[in-house]
Amino acid sequence: MSTDETVTNYKKTVLYIGVTNNLEQRIIEYYLDRGNEETFTGRYNVFYLLYYECTPYVNNVIAREKEIKGWS
Fold first, then answer.
1. Containing domain of residue 57, as a range?
2. What is the pTM of this model?
3. Which three-class secondary structure string do you get for the chain?
4. Is the N or the C terminus of the chain less surrounded, counting Cβ atoms within 10 Å?
5. Cα–Cα–Cα angle for 10, 16, 20, rounded to 5 degrees
6. Do 58 and 6 meet the contact criterion of CB atoms below 8 Å apart?
7. Which tens digit of pLDDT belongs to each residue from 1-25?
8. How many domains are there within the chain?
9. 8 Å CB contact between 12 and 60
């Protein structure tokens, strides 16, 4: 199962949209990476899950990610 995830920081001023096949593990990685200036999620302390969608087809997840990233 592939998942689109949207996460934010504590102040909800930054959004990050990504794709994963293990949502729980990905959120843990974001949390452990906070403060790491070498990554986007670490630099902006992005680890609060706002929204996710699941589908068995990775191509659908990638298409949906591109659609969401095109929103204003």
1. 2-69
2. 0.84
3. CEEEEEEECCCCCCEEEEEECCHHHHHHHHHHHCCCCCCHHHHCCCCEEEEEEEECCHHHHHHHHHHHHCCC
4. C
5. 115
6. no
7. 899 999 999 999 999 999 999 999 9
8. 1
9. no
